[in-house]
Design goal:
The structure holds two protein chains of two kinds. Chain A is an all-alpha fold. Chain A has helices at residues 6-24, 27-46, 62-79, 84-91, 94-99, 105-133, 141-170, 173-189, 202-208, 212-223, 230-261. The two termini of chain A are 29 Å apart. In chain B, strands 6-7-8-3-9-10 form a six-stranded mixed beta sheet, with helices on both faces. A four-stranded antiparallel beta sheet of chain B has the order 2-1-4-5, covered by helices on one side. In chain B, helix 3 packs parallel to helix 5. The chains are: A mainly alpha, B alpha/beta.
Chain lengths: 262, 334
């Protein structure tokens, strides 16, 4: 095997390993879906009247506004857990065995990103279905849904790589959970996921412009409208893609820190 | 494939770990050196914390030494870790199999990551060798401790390594599974032509499996040789007397030191150890001396007395100054 193809082959092999474990325990997917669907239906009802606040720029149906927000919330919360696989591998000797074989370090990271992206795609389809049954309508059509999924997948990549890096540095499940929670919730609320930021204090909007969750929400929501601003959509997707590359490189470098600590 | 006379050589390895806030660093390796002839099983014997696992981690490229040099199959581990990784198998102290995958999936994945084309064939061969064929397509989390450990060793063998690292392969196994593993490892050594570095804290395991061994204490090798050489080096039998109480053991030590023909007298709790050219001749003298002192008022009643041919435990005692079993190493993991 040449050094060029090895990382690709290893990524495939390691992604398949995680998908096998998932296929043997698919209940995990249901557990992951319960919270976002409750949020979708509960918030969808609770804040129905938000759309009639003067100055609300997100259309005239709150459920339709909320759905891309919930999709990104699910992608964020799910991918923040991605490092769990490696915590388990480290608690056993599995990680050390990989690292003493020619296993591609980048392959190890990208495999968790791809696996998490598969979950995100399945969950997104379920959430869209539930939202449609509850009355939400997406004028963007199949193209809009594809772009929403692309945004969700890129957001998943960013936070799965981040989670892997934290796992390799902290080496403990409790630390991973604490850091994920500490970051996920503020990122979610400092975006337009559930509330139009034009109605929030100005500083929230200012912060949101640098928030990758907001980039994904904005791109996905815009793509689902009847006349998307494609320049803005692709701009946000470009930012997410760039951050994905940076995070992947950082997470791969975290293996060196891990190996120094063993 | 090139063959090397030296399977593993390590020279003056040093490594320390941070011990937490403010505390001085803990020295794991303090100038450890070993030389392992290619194609042999070499045992690293010592209690927990002696530096065995650290040595394995450095030689298998997982960790790096602060100073010193090491070559595995003729390749420098610090300079060419990627090349070393292609020719070694690594069985960590902890389980190396993924419990969510089946035994066969674990083996095939390990082989494919090594770039093997015949991974499925090799996996079937190893499953058969370790009598795991029936369990091959079950998830590893359903395996018994002994089965899972055999699979770990099989994973280490997948890529037909030139050098195999086995870090405490039988720790945590019940005696029956341990005996079975020993049989498997002996059979493996005959079939596969490779160098094995085995760490263990079981004296019996090192004695049985290793053709040469090194006793490691406080991060360095205190003595190395074949088990027979090490035992022969002690000259004579061990004479061991266990007292009912340790209160006057120091007095017993003084008494025994004065007896002719008795060497290397040591006290270890309420056990008096010594060495004599002929244990059978020395023992009555020892008992008589203790009995005389006991009648004189010293608390030197004898609970048991043993004469034994030298064992590795005696070798260990001689070179480290403390008895192996008193290190509290049995069955505990570090």
């Amino acid at each position: 095997m040449t050094t060029l193809t090895a990382p690709v082959v290893h990524t495939g092999l390691l992604t398949a390993r995680q998908l096998r474990a998932f296929a043997r325990n698919p209940a995990y997917l249901l557990i992951n879906l319960v919270q976002p669907i409750i949020w979708l239906l509960l918030f969808g009802q609770l804040f129905k009247a938000v759309v009639s606040i003067p100055g609300f720029t997100g259309g005239d149906d709150y459920l339709t506004f909320l759905t891309p927000g919930i999709v990104m919330m699910m992608a964020l919360f799910g991918s923040a857990w991605a490092g769990t696989t490696y915590i388990q591998d480290m608690d056993r000797g599995v990680m050390d065995r990989f690292l003493t074989s020619p296993t591609s370090r980048a392959g190890l990271i990208v495999a968790t990103m791809l696996y998490q992206a598969v979950l995100t795609v399945i969950q997104t389809l379920v959430v869209l279905g539930v939202a449609w049954l509850a009355g939400a309508r997406f004028e963007g059509g199949p193209a809009g849904i594809l772009v929403l999924m692309l945004a969700a997948v890129l957001l998943t990549f960013v936070f799965a790589a981040f989670s892997d890096a934290i796992a390799l540095l902290a080496k403990q499940q409790t630390a991973l959970i604490a850091i994920s929670q500490l970051i996920s919730f503020p990122l979610m609320f400092l975006s337009s996921a559930i509330m139009d930021t034009t109605l929030s204090p100005a500083w929230v909007g200012d912060i949101a412009r640098f928030n990758p969750v907001e980039w994904a929400v904005a791109a996905g929501r815009d793509a689902l409208t009847s006349a998307p601003d494609w320049a803005s959509v692709w701009g946000h997707l470009g930012l997410l893609a760039g951050l994905t590359v940076v995070m992947t490189i950082l997470a791969t470098a975290a293996f060196r820190a891990y190996q120094r600590s063993v | 494939m090139t063959s090397h006379q030296v399977g593993i050589s390590a020279h003056d390895l040093r490594k320390s770990y941070p011990a937490g806030r403010g505390a001085p660093r803990v020295t794991a390796l303090d100038g450890l050196s070993i030389e392992v002839e290619a194609g042999t099983i070499f045992g690293l014997l010592g209690p927990n914390g002696a530096g065995k696992s650290t040595t394995v981690k450095i030689l298998s490229t997982l960790s790096r030494a602060e100073s010193g040099t090491a070559e595995v199959a003729g390749i420098d581990v610090a300079r060419h870790p990627d090349r070393v990784r292609r020719v070694i198998g690594f069985v960590a102290q902890k389980a190396v199999a993924d419990p969510m995958d089946t035994g066969r999936e674990n083996l095939v994945l390990a082989g494919r990551l090594q770039g093997m084309r015949d991974a499925s064939h090799r996996a079937a061969e190893l499953l058969d060798r370790f009598s795991l064929t029936e369990a091959a397509d079950r998830q590893v989390k359903t395996y018994s401790g002994g089965m899972a450990r055999k699979l770990d060793v099989a994973i280490g063998l997948m890529n037909r390594p030139q050098v195999l690292f086995l870090d405490e392969p039988t720790t945590g196994l019940d005696p029956e599974a341990r005996a079975e593993m020993w049989t498997e490892l002996e059979a493996m050594a005959k079939v596969e032509r490779m160098t094995v570095l085995l760490t263990t804290h079981y004296l019996e395991e090192a004695d049985r499996l290793a053709s040469r061994l090194a006793i490691v204490d406080h991060g360095r090798v205190v003595v190395a040789g074949s088990p027979e050489e090490l035992k022969d080096g002690l000259h004579g039998d061990a004479v061991i007397v266990e007292l009912t109480s340790g209160e006057d053991a120091a007095e017993g030590l003084r008494l025994l030191e004065r007896l002719p023909g008795l060497d290397e007298v040591l006290v270890d709790g309420r056990v008096l150890r010594s060495r004599a050219a002929s244990g059978a001749e020395a023992l009555p003298q020892v008992l008589a001396a203790l009995d005389t002192a006991r009648l004189g008022g010293a608390r030197l009643a004898v609970a048991s007395a043993t004469v034994a041919r030298p064992s590795l435990d005696d070798v260990y005692l001689r070179h480290t100054g403390h008895s192996y079993s008193s290190t509290g190493s049995e069955g505990v993991n570090a």
